[in-house]
Amino acid sequence: MSCYRFGFAMVLAMVAMTAASSRALAVSYASNITKTGTTVNFVLNSPADILSYSINGGAPVTLDGSTKGAKTFNLVNVNDTFSIVAERTDAAGYTTLTGNTVTGGGNKLFTDSPEAGLTVLSDDTSVLNRFSNPRGVSVSQNPNAPNFGTVYVANSANATGTPQLIAASGIYPERTVTGDGLYALRPDGADAFGYGNDAKNPTVEGFPAWVASSNNSPFRNYVADDGTIYVADFSDANGSLIQVQPDLNSAINVLPGFGGPTTLPVGQNHGSTTAVHVEGSLAAGNLKVYTIDEDLTSAQFVEGGSTTDQNSLWEYNIGSGPFPSAVVPTKIAEPLIPLATTDMERGADGKWYLMQTRNGALNSPTLFVVSADGSTVLFNSLEATRTLTANPTADRDILQYCNGVAVSPDQKWVALMLNIGDVAVIPLIDGIPDLANKRVINTDPDVISGRDIAFDAAGNIHYVSSGQGLYRVLAPGGHTKATTSWNGTEFVFGVETITTTPGLAGDFNADNVVDGADFLVWQRGGSPNPLSTGDLDLWKAHFGDVGSATGAVGAVPEPSSLIVSLLAMAGFATFRRRVA
């Protein structure tokens, strides 16, 4: 073997897997990071084209990113800083259009929509992704939380202690789940704590946190910055708000008392809750909890107050606690429509996204965007429908049949869970939905009912559907670099989206740079003219060319291209040796 061939083989062994073509179509990122002495462990949520780490700002060292799951590396000294970079390029995702059309109609959006790319990151063949009656899903987004990236699914089995069979269907496997409660999945889809098919339903005040008498106990959930999970209970018998520890083994009532319905006991500061948002923490003394409440009215606290403002947005300024807190809440926003099932999300700039389920109702807006202080309605989807269609008397909202709402961490997208099980995605301009450019992901199979939706820190969409009996993760597509860094004090996370320069010559994998990875594409017959000398000459002539880059979810440094450059040089040397 010549030295050229030997050198090329060594470099290929180092990086062939990280430079391979895409597999799972996702934003790959390092999560669940722990640092013990000089050992760093983390979980890669999905395969990456390039996975590397850097110590103290030094040259990147490649890791095997061809598989998702647990990864590890060692520092030199316990005080070293480090960063982990996962890079991936995919042609399709919810940010791209397929050229097809998704028809509107019953249990869907009212009008036809362009189809967005379907890129399923989660494994539909995994039993861990099957649920009998899912109601809520949330993802830990804080890189400093112990469970960063962990996913929590609320399943209301309506038969505590009684196994429920989810029948196999096509590629979806059979599963038997037990009880009402929460399930936890690692970012790579593995069982986070090894609880298997048994829902976790910790004891609160001597009783299970959630009851079997309602399909909505538990309901939606939200992971706070400290990693604890706040769970809304929409049932009449057990209406509540529960805080659960990250491992799901213990819980406490956030607000005193249980239950609705509309007539609440004197002194009770809540009823049945449908959605929750949390800021701050007890430990920091700045905890604020926000709820949508089906039963609570102003008359509960103020003599002569309104008795018809159910489903308002309420703020509980709990501070340092303790739990359960009897603090009197402040109404932030007026109700949408009394007795409508509702959801909410808060954007990075403080705007509120308030959604109500108005399936087929006439003259009923589905989505509102409200100012941070709740004083101003900035967007009303029925009014936006009338403007877009130039029909001032239109009685049907385009955004009909929506059951859940989520906003991306960079506040560039709002996603809506449709009753049929599809997902509508709308770009945001200064936080306001651009309804004219909506698109729909056809998740297939279309079965009612889609239930809840959330984003992770990297911008992947997570949703649950009781009709499909599934939990799924959908990716945005495109070329992304996700960096998780330890600066000696805290973890910092960011995602950079690379905008490809159209027609960048020699960029056969469309990742906006002409490098060694493009040589591999050529070698495997993936260039426009497979294995042609012309394509190889084009690559040689433009080796090193780079397009433009645009930050998407926070600016992060671009890692060195040392490895792929070595690959390119070794590969070119081998080619020259062959043709000499």
Automatic annotation (TrEMBL):
InterPro entries named among the record's database cross-references: Ice-binding_C
NCBIfam families: PEP_CTERM
Protein name: PEP-CTERM protein-sorting domain-containing protein
Organism from which the protein derives: Lacipirellula limnantheis
Signal peptide as annotated in the record: 1-26
Annotated keywords: Signal
